[in-house]
Amino acid sequence: METDAETAAKRLLGCELVHEVEGHRLRVRIVETEAYDEADPASHTHRGRTARNDAMFLSAGHAYVYLIHGLHHCMNVVAGFEGHGCGVLIRAAEPLEGLAEMERRRGRGGAELTNGPGKLCQAMGITLPMREHDLGEPPLILIRRSPVDQDQIVVTRRVGIAKNADAPRRFYLRGDPWVPRPWTT
DNA sequence: GAAAAGATCTTCT
DNA sequence: GAAGATCTTTTCC
């Protein structure tokens, strides 16, 4: 399971994320990811291990959740071996199960449900306490799927960052309607 | 110890 | 298309 961040980011495309909360089963399929690791100036782990990014240094398959701009959550899947700060940001997903509950949590529906890191976490009910959670255990589980075809994956520069912005480390499924529109090529 | 920026989203013009 | 919301972490006196 342990790999470099870019390989993990590509492998996560098409995988499913399930969160069982308050009697609801929320299930999505990952369609857009970004890779981050210690050698990357844009990564939270670039300046070493701290109290905030500690989860990123756990073994592969853990969750790293953080608060951005004081009001939105973002979720990463840790990719590397214990002690290596690399992981994958989940940027967008396709809702598969629990649509009504996600719409209730978001206060919106349709394409606005899960087409962004903050929106996805709000729809899925993923918050700070899920930091350092093992994604092999309930209530939040990552379901591995066989990797999608290489020619289904589009690689571009990442979104919304200032440092190392030109690095081609963002991956999404070609033509998928749940990938945010302006970036879909 | 103080100030600024940040892997974002929503609302208003 | 631009700015506001809102708070943690980092950086610079």
TrEMBL record:
Tagged with keyword DNA damage: yes
Annotated Gene3D superfamilies: Methylpurine-DNA glycosylase (MPG) (3.10.300.10)
Residue spans crossing the bilayer: none
InterPro entries per UniProt: Formyl_transferase-like_C_sf, MPG, MPG_sf
EC code(s) of this entry: 3.2.2.-
SUPFAM superfamilies hit by this protein: FMT C-terminal domain-like (SSF50486)
The protein's enzyme class: hydrolase
Top-level taxonomic group: Bacteria
Keywords carried by this UniProt record: DNA damage, DNA repair, Glycosidase, Hydrolase
Protein's GO biological process: base-excision repair
Molecular function GO terms recorded: alkylbase DNA N-glycosylase activity; DNA binding
Pfam hit, one: Pur_DNA_glyco
Assigned protein family: Belongs to the DNA glycosylase MPG family.
NCBIfam families registered for this protein in UniProt: 3mg, PRK00802.1-3
HAMAP family in alphabetical order: 3MGH (MF_00527)
Name this protein carries in UniProt: Putative 3-methyladenine DNA glycosylase
Origin species: Luteococcus japonicus LSP_Lj1
